[in-house]
Amino acid sequence: MRRHTRRIFNICYRFTGNRTEAEDLTQDVFLRVYRTLGSYRSAHGGFATWMTSVTRNLLIDHYRRTKRDRVTDSLDDAMPVVENKESVARRPDEQALLGELSGQVQSALTRLSPELREAVILRDLQQLEYMEIQRVLEVPEGTVKSRINRGRIELARILQQMGVRPA
Fold it and tell me: What string of H, E and C letters represents the secondary structure of 107-156?
């Protein structure tokens, strides 16, 4: 469990943009994994890939359950909280810029459709291979590549609208 906690939390956080919600969802994932461990088959892929599939399914369920709530939320309420992480290697001004950029990327991610968001998160943030993403999403590899490409293009467009320019 400890080996996978950070990765599962990161997927949940990037999908929801809310730390508390991501923590709750991470716990839910591990409860579901414990209850459904008997359904894991190593012939269908690695354990980490299976856990990512469980996470994805739980996130889809959560998205559907909370869809109505999101419609009534104001944009200010939906903005993620930027985490401050100290680093001895970075100056405070660099850290502030990185934190701001991280918040902007998270905000832009939440504006992507769920299909594009999950593909971009799994590839670019979790660094899964195309074949692993195909197993998780249960779609053909061409669809995976298409969603990643469209997601990246849409993310770049949103970031540009937000005034974020490439370095």
Answer: HHHHCCCHHHHHHHHHHHHCCCCHHHHHHHHCCCHHHHHHHHHHHHHHHH
With respect to residue 157, please indicate whether it lies within any of the assigned structural domains. yes
166 located within any domain: no
The pLDDT tens digits for 104-141 are 888 888 899 999 999 998 898 888 899 989 988 899 99
Prediction pTM value: 0.56
* Residue 47 belongs to some domain of the structure: yes
Q: CATH no. for residue 48?
A: 1.20.140.160
Say if CB 16 and CB 10 are below 8 A apart. no
Q: Which domain holds residue 62?
A: 2-83+91-161
